[in-house]
């Protein structure tokens, strides 16, 4: 069907080109790229030649302005094609394409620049030939070409609008000595050709989605396009606007990442919040508006790496089934053109007129300031920056140049802002008071609170947060850099004085507490930079970033980096210490596929079938004895598993992933073994509650509804799906044991794999897999050793062959009636 549609589209375009020829006398459509995929290639309908789409993951096709369009990922996707330059005219040229941008190209990862890459073209600046549409890192666009070896640039008088279809057409007429650019049939730029000569048409090499050179940061291309490109046409004459064929797009520009991009990814979480792909960092501003939770966060839509930050936006009705919205804030002004960094969302009738406002760190190439934006619509999708930005023009005198992450709160009938900083080499937060009469913020160098020493409190505080709890107490949290434990979340409990400053309670005067269970959150592992939403007085939902700590090469292979934690409920206990338990609404994730038991003894192991897989919840309550290690094994296959257990002899909670096949993200720090001595001894005979959520590459673990931590593990064996509970060293009495397969869409039961009951035959000859004795409903899936699917085949007979479209060693996984089998094979293609 797709081939027929392409043929029809090509015929119609050929006829359109022929009719234009009648009107103009000699017009010819020289090249036309409909941008509709044929496998992993696109085709020039005029020549019939096909060209490979270069992309880290499989090339993607979405609804286009005309038919289908190519989705470019922003860090790897482009097409190296050819055009028939012999048919180009040296006197006139028309070049048109459709495009829709999610962001502008990166170009430089270290500083803000205004340099350009190609949307498409064959321009060769070394040979001073060819032509191209260019788009800059700041949204400026132009059509550049060469006349008799001299470069001519025709700039548009506007920025290229994002999230909409733009039909760009450049028309060159050497005889009239003019060039014009049209966007959606409107003239947006023109230039004169100041010399007599001919168009230097250039070579046949034609590139789509980037310029010919490579600008890289590690494995990532920085000069690639992030968005959609559709229907590229090159004519050998100067067309008029009426002849251009412009019409209203068939579809709206959909910049969401296709679900197909990660549908076979066994490592990507599904019920944890995260953007559709590429890079994310700390969340800020968990708010509830018009029936939905909104979470804003640091986002780089161009690739899974640090640089030129935006504010991303995801929404959910339940805090586990998330949908990404369009980007909320982008660098666009002289004060934030390097990036819109972290901050908060605040809503107050007086300060913000009863609607949420974004307060953020605006960064240029020299300094950080504080800026503000307000919503244009009730869905919090579109935002405008206030005219009087920046609202704080820079760091207070005498404090660190590193000045960022504003947080707004109200106390004593006044409004205050705190910002992360460093004072005398110790982490601190500034204090800025709001003047209701002048509507300005102070910036006199006052401190809200400062740590006692750098070893304990760190050298700089990121993402400070202050919220009211019960009985006049306040919870203050920050993510320090440079402490003895590295990067981790610390908290203090105290009071707010009449001047807006914070004083910790006596128990916190000398040392703060760790949010993550001690030892589990050091060195940037575990939950960081939480964003809090008040559920009721004294109770908050908290979501933070949980970095994956993988290499750049691994992030490139995956196409994404980092995720957010599950929501945790935070309260203070009778000792004014933080208690953490799972957000209550997570129970709706549970399907009908369960394992449940009460009041039983266990000495050994017990499988939790039918609960298996990578998306599940397990909870056990048992009586502690003096010798038995008790817990769960996940991702189990043979003698390999991730163990999560309590050891009463050492009063330790342990996560041991040393035996499994995995992407290693913790070498030199944890090396697969995560251990923590509990802050309080658990008495023999008392009840112990171990509660674990597993979501592919993240585990959120809760103990006694008191302590919690999140850990990132990346199991790569696609058939390591077993789950069991164990008591090692003696008999343990369980009061309850429950496990569920989880589904964020709540569609009911998830299919369960059968155990092996038959022998199958697999043999590879070159690139052909010969199989035998398979059930007729069998599915064969092929994975590389990072867990990414290479191919999948469904068979309809017991014996046959499959031509494999890849080379190298991999794992073949067979699932069917009575079969759950995997084997390593090597393909020579």
TrEMBL record:
<dbReference type="InterPro" id="IPR013189">
    <property type="entry name" value="Glyco_hydro_32_C"/>
</dbReference>
<dbReference type="InterPro" id="IPR051214">
    <property type="entry name" value="GH32_Enzymes"/>
</dbReference>
<dbReference type="Pfam" id="PF00251">
    <property type="entry name" value="Glyco_hydro_32N"/>
</dbReference>
<keyword id="KW-0378">Hydrolase</keyword>
<feature type="domain" description="LamG-like jellyroll fold">
    <location>
        <begin position="91"/>
        <end position="242"/>
    </location>
</feature>
<keyword id="KW-1015">Disulfide bond</keyword>
<keyword id="KW-0326">Glycosidase</keyword>
<protein>
    <recommendedName>
        <fullName>beta-fructofuranosidase</fullName>
        <ecNumber>3.2.1.26</ecNumber>
    </recommendedName>
</protein>
<dbReference type="Pfam" id="PF08244">
    <property type="entry name" value="Glyco_hydro_32C"/>
</dbReference>
<dbReference type="GO" id="GO:0004564">
    <property type="term" value="F:beta-fructofuranosidase activity"/>
</dbReference>
<dbReference type="InterPro" id="IPR013320">
    <property type="entry name" value="ConA-like_dom_sf"/>
</dbReference>
<dbReference type="InterPro" id="IPR006558">
    <property type="entry name" value="LamG-like"/>
</dbReference>
<dbReference type="InterPro" id="IPR013148">
    <property type="entry name" value="Glyco_hydro_32_N"/>
</dbReference>
<comment type="similarity">
    <text>Belongs to the glycosyl hydrolase 32 family.</text>
</comment>
<dbReference type="InterPro" id="IPR001362">
    <property type="entry name" value="Glyco_hydro_32"/>
</dbReference>
<dbReference type="Pfam" id="PF13385">
    <property type="entry name" value="Laminin_G_3"/>
</dbReference>
<dbReference type="InterPro" id="IPR023296">
    <property type="entry name" value="Glyco_hydro_beta-prop_sf"/>
</dbReference>
<dbReference type="GO" id="GO:0005975">
    <property type="term" value="P:carbohydrate metabolic process"/>
</dbReference>
<keyword id="KW-0732">Signal</keyword>
């Amino acid at each position: 069907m797709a081939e027929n549609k392409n043929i029809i589209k090509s015929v119609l375009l050929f006829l359109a080109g022929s009719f234009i020829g009648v009107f103009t006398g000699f017009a010819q459509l020289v090249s036309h790229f409909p941008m509709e995929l044929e496998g992993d290639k696109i085709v020039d309908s005029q020549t019939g030649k096909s060209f490979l789409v270069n992309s880290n993951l499989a090339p993607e096709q979405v609804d286009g302005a005309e038919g289908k369009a190519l989705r470019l990922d922003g860090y790897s996707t482009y097409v190296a094609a050819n055009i028939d330059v012999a048919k180009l005219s040296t006197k006139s040229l028309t070049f048109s394409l459709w495009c829709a941008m999610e962001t502008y190209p990166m170009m430089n990862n270290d500083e803000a620049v205004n340099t350009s890459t190609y949307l498409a073209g064959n321009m060769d600046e070394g040979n001073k030939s060819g032509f191209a549409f260019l788009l800059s890192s700041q949204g400026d666009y132009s059509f550049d070409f060469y006349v008799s070896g001299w470069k001519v640039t025709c700039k548009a008088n506007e920025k290229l609008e994002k999230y909409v279809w733009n039909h760009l057409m450049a028309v060159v007429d050497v005889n009239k000595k003019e060039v014009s650019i049209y966007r959606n049939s409107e003239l947006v730029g023109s230039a004169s050709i100041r010399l007599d000569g001919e168009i230097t048409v250039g070579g046949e090499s034609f590139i789509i989605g980037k310029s010919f050179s490579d600008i890289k940061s590690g494995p990532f291309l920085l000069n690639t396009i992030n968005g959609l490109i559709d229907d590229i046409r090159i004519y050998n004459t100067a067309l008029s606007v009426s002849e251009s064929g412009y019409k209203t797009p068939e579809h709206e520009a959909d910049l969401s990442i296709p679900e197909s991009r990660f549908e076979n990814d066994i490592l990507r979480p599904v019920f944890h919040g995260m953007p559709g792909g590429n890079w994310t960092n700390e969340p800020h501003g968990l708010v509830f508006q018009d029936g939905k939770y909104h979470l804003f966060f640091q986002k780089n839509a161009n690739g899974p790496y640090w640089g030129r930050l935006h504010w991303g936006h995801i929404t959910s009705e339940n805090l586990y089934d998330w949908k990404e919205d369009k980007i909320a804030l982008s660098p666009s002004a002289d004060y934030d053109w390097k990036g819109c960094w972290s901050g908060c969302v605040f809503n107050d009738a007086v300060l913000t007129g009863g609607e949420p406002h974004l307060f953020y760190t605006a960064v240029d190439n020299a300094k950080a300031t504080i800026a503000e934006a307000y919503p244009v619509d009730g869905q919090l999708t579109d935002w405008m920056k206030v005219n009087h930005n920046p609202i704080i023009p820079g760091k207070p005198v005498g404090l660190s140049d590193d000045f960022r992450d504003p947080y707004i709160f109200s106390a004593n009938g006044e409004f205050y802002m705190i910002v992360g900083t460093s004072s005398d080499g110790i982490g601190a937060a500034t204090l800025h008071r709001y003047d209701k009469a002048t509507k300005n913020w102070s910036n006199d160098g006052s401190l809200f609170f400062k740590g006692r020493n750098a070893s304990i409190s760190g050298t700089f505080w990121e993402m400070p947060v202050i919220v009211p709890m019960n009985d006049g107490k306040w919870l203050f949290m920050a993510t320090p850099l440079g402490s003895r434990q590295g990067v981790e979340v610390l908290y203090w409990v105290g009071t707010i004085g009449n001047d807006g400053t914070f004083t910790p309670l006596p128990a916190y005067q000398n040392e703060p507490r760790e949010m993550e269970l001690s030892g589990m959150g050091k060195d940037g592992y575990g939950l960081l930079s939480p964003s809090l939403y008040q559920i009721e007085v004294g109770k908050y939902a908290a979501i933070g970033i949980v970095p994956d700590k993988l290499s750049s090469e691994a992030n490139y292979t995956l196409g994404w980096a980092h995720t957010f934690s599950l929501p945790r409920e935070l309260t203070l206990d009778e000792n004014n210490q933080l208690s953490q338990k799972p957000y209550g609404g997570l129970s709706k994730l549970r399907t009908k596929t369960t394992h449940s038991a009460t009041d039983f003894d266990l000495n050994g192991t017990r499988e939790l079938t039918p609960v298996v897989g990578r998306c599940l919840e397990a909870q056990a309550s048992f009586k502690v004895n003096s010798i038995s290690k008790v817990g769960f094994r996940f991702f189990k296959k043979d003698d390999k598993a991730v163990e999560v257990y309590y050891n009463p002899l050492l009063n330790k909670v342990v996560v041991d992933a040393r035996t499994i096949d995995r992407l290693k993200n913790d070498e030199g720090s944890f090396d697969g073994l995560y251990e923590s001595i509990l802050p309080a001894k658990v008495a023999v005979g008392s009840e112990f509650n171990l509660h674990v959520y597993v979501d592919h590459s993240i585990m959120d673990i809760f103990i006694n509804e008191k302590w919690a931590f999140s850990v990132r593990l990346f199991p790569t064996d696609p058939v390591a799906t077993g789950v069991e509970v164990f008591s090692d060293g003696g008999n343990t009495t369980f009061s309850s044991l429950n496990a569920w397969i989880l589904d964020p869409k709540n569609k009911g039961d998830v299919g369960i794999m059968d155990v092996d009951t038959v022998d199958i035959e697999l043999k590879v000859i070159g690139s052909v897999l010969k199989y035998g004795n398979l059930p007729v409903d069998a599915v064969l899936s092929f994975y590389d050793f990072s867990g990414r699917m290479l191919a999948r085949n469904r068979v309809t007979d017991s014996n046959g062959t499959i031509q494999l479209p890849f080379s190298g060693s991999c794992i073949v996984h067979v699932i069917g009636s009575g079969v759950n089998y995997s084997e390593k094979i090597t393909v020579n293609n």
